[in-house]
Amino acid sequence: HGTMMGYIERARDQGYAVLILNPNMNFDSHGQSIPGSESKEGHTVHAWDSLGDSSPARNVYIVGHSYGGRCTCALLANRWDALQPRLRAIGFTDSVHDSFGLSHELLELLASQQCANWVTSHQPLDTLLSPLAGNGCRAISAGTKDHASTNYTAMDSVFNLFAKNTPDNQAAGSEAPQP
Fold first, then answer.
1. pLDDT over 50 (residue 129)
2. Alpha carbon distance 49, 140 (integer Å)
3. Are 115 and 92 in contact (CB under 8 A)?
4. How confident is the model over 25-53, as pLDDT tens digits?
5. d(CA 85, CA 2)
6. pTM
7. Helix 40-47 vs helix 67-83: crossing angle, to nearest 10
8. Nearest Cα to 75, choosing from 106, 29, 113, 54?
9. pLDDT (tens digit per residue) in 64-98
10. b vs e for 145-173, b when ≥16 Cβ sit within 10 Å of the residue's Cβ?
11. What is the DSSP letter of 133?
């Protein structure tokens, strides 16, 4: 259940374009660093610069699992001007990001209803655990104690967050998502 395949299939079914990053793969088959991917955070920024920035997509939604949350924050910190007009929501799943050193504007984003972190917990899925956790955003139960399963168990909730933060729903003044 730790795979992103369910997200890919569902996103494609709902008409989203999909860009999957694997910042854990920083070396080629010969053990050499991949240019632009010398670090996990660098990989994420490089991939955005190479593929995401030039994408015609008007709406960007991000899922950041585990260290991918830290990479997401690095991307936001380094490419905020390009992302801000298109970024609609971020669904973290058991993310290890922190808010240290982020700008006031990014801290406001993390604290907004556009972001949530579904974390391991024995509590039922979507139970609010903390309205503002130490990493700057809402901590919500993923309904599992298994780190790798948080993507799977929170998938419906993450897509609900995305749906609530589409431009049509925001323009209509709909309530922010309350998972």
1. yes
2. 31
3. yes
4. 788 889 888 888 889 999 999 999 998 88
5. 31
6. 0.88
7. 40
8. 106
9. 999 999 999 999 999 999 999 999 999 999 999 88
10. eebebbbbbbbebbbbbbbbbeeebeeee
11. -
Residue with tokens 């801000």: 84
User: How many beta carbons lie within 10 A of that of residue 17, not counting itself?
Assistant: 12
Helix (H, G, I), strand (E, B) or coil at 163: helix
Q: Please report, for residues 35, 36, 163, the alpha-carbon distance to residue 39 in angstroms, rounded to integers and kept in the order given.
A: 10, 8, 32
Which two three-digit tokens encode residue 18?
């999909």
DSSP 149: G
Q: What distance in Å separates the CA atoms of residue 56 and residue 144, rounded to the nearest whole number?
A: 36
Q: Are 1 and 144 in contact, with CB atoms under 8 Å apart?
A: no
Q: Which amino acid is at 98?
A: D
Q: Give the pair of three-digit tokens for residue 111.
A: 């604290």
Sign (positive or negative) of CA dihedral 144, 154, 149, 71: negative
Alpha helices in the chain, H assignment, sequence order = 5-13, 40-47, 67-83, 104-111, 150-164, 167-171
Query: Which two three-digit tokens encode residue 54?
Result: 């030039």
